[in-house]
């Protein structure tokens, strides 16, 4: 942190002048910080020392009157005080070094203050006396991270400004081009649930008398298993026969038992077979971890890896909320793991016991921390309507509470149970409550699930998984029930037999129905599709989701553009909503680092024109791309700001991300992209919220949120409104890409313009339809709030099929038709005559046929 940043952060209560920060500066530098600050209080005769100021702040539990001032007033006072300090010091006999500093930094600091004044919008009022009595103010040394109040100060719109997921009143008008594709996402638009009740084949059910029914997929009818735990002295009780599972009449490979009445909640258990070999119940709600044991038990008789009975909390006074309806909606997805999202987030909710703390201090209660401390609201304010969490199913150990290291997200993909939820971050009830908190802010929650492979090994003694895990379950033929082929990562593919497929499908439905997730992201779909019966599994999974929860979505991590994956099942497809585009991202990551004139827009033109019908999900980066290294000429393996490392050229992130958003109806990124932090997801995974104190980052974050809201609010971007000429214009000379999106119900057109190049263009002329319609410039990266110059008006009038506007370097403009709607005919439309495009030298350099 440089000197000026320290001063600003200190004045805005972002950081404190702790010894860790102060040791990087000389006493003279620190004194000047406080000298400038003291000009806000002219009556103060003597400036306290650094030690006195730090001690005063750290011991204060009640904010001063000055601290209660609105932040806008504070900033104005700071600007006046800074100017006074500069003027006073002009006549002082400072060293040549400090004279140079003051002269060169005066103007830049004033610009920063002006920018901050522009960014402070809807500053919340001070806390009420009632709130102040609940929890004392955090000490000054705690105010080192950002929280929801800071996000509120950086965003214009409330979280509920756009209600993306309200149920559809009727099936929307579908474009003729999309109608021909037989997309699964379109054919389920008006589908209703077939079933109202769901019960998985395996799992536990608690009864009013204290008994529990346990059902397990054993895989054969000849084994006899007993349930052992503290409740029967781990198999030493005389009535052990009461704990024996028996094959069920409906399916003899499913064994069941109703245990005698007892208090089973939180009890740990295992299964033991007729030969005395123990195994885990892989359908259990949880498997134990050191973090869970430390939090939930005063004493524990076993430190080994065990299954856990968990009785869900009944919400008798709360009506079951209607599920969010994601059908037909454009999605702006934030991919995240819970820890990275919350680690450096500060709780600013005075009603919470976490008040003033960060997520790093409450890892075993992270679900509660996220729910109580405003992160769901923050994601909505930042423009996302969906959060996709990396796997939360039980996986190999990655953390112990006393460890010096933090959990590593990569272990979450080494799954050892697809029913149980990994309890390091909280209980199943707390996970449900966290999901409900996202729903209250109209943010959907997807879960990344690994149904393509599993870890046969994992964990150190006494918590080994291999001897008690998947390998202990055998089929009727004596072979391992779950085991398929080995993968290159050392994991095993599933053997997609009918009963294993049903077991995985039930696990997916548990996520949607019991936990309230709004959809699934299937990891490594291509790996599933390549296995025997793999495609059948995908079809059965999406069929079950549509039968029980048609409002939910299933996204596949498939990279090779197979159109069968997202076609409807009736058309022979797998029924997925969308899949990824590997060849687009390869183009993206290679061309991003090129000079403007080297960008291959010809290949982009061909690729987007050819791939539109695949209805793919595009992204500027995800957990794989921000972690796995690529070649030196690629941006892979690094956050984009780290890869570009170009000062002003970091604005590339703005227009290149817009390219990925406007090319489809489904968009995904990670928020680390927008904080413009260094490193990659392996070396620097936590979201660095403090980056938002930098004006250039705050402006970028404001823009990306507004861009997402623009994308979500225009029906023309909906998946059922796609058409074959969405790629409207490719200006190969200037590297400008234009998309035409149409709302086929009203005929309203939206033109999304992205400048991939590094030079601004004045009076950029764009062919549009209708001929003389009026367009609102609804999105413009050149606005002052984003650090631009504000050259464009709010509205522009088309003349002779053209509109003109200013387009800044790496600029993004969104034009929304404001009048003259003309509904599009349902029949094919003939091509128009070519339109000439005039270049800077007044010579025509490009022609394009476009569809009105």
List keywords for this structure.
globular, single chain, Immunoglobulin-like, EC 2.4.1.18, alpha+beta, 852 residues, 8-stranded parallel β-sheet, 27% helix, 1,4-alpha-glucan branching enzyme, transferase, Glyco_hydro_b, 23 helices
Write a brief caption for the model:
GO terms for molecular function: 1,4-alpha-glucan branching enzyme activity; cation binding. It is an enzyme of class 2 (transferase). The protein is an alpha+beta fold and 852 residues long.
Topology readout:
Elements: H1 3-11, H2 19-22, H3 27-38, H4 50-59, H5 71-90, H6 96-119, H7 129-134, H8 148-154, H9 176-181, H10 184-187, E1 203-206, E2 212-217, E3 226-229, E4 246-247, E5 254-259, E6 268-272, E7 278-279, E8 286-287, H11 290-296, E9 307-308, E10 331-336, H12 338-342, H13 366-372, H14 375-381, E11 386-389, E12 393-395, E13 415-421, H15 428-440, E14 444-449, E15 453-454, E16 483-486, E17 492-494, H16 498-514, E18 519-522, H17 525-529, H18 534-548, E19 553-556, E20 578-579, H19 582-591, H20 601-611, E21 617-618, H21 640-644, H22 652-662, E22 666-669, H23 695-713, E23 727-731, E24 736-742, E25 749-755, E26 761-767, E27 774-780, E28 795-797, E29 802-807, E30 812-817, E31 835-838, E32 844-848
Parallel strand pairs: 10-11, 10-22, 11-14, 14-18, 18-19, 19-20, 21-22
Antiparallel strand pairs: 1-2, 2-5, 3-6, 4-5, 6-7, 6-9, 8-9, 12-13, 15-17, 16-17, 23-24, 24-25, 25-30, 26-29, 27-28, 27-30, 31-32
Helix pairs in contact: 1-3, 3-5, 5-6, 13-15, 16-18, 22-23
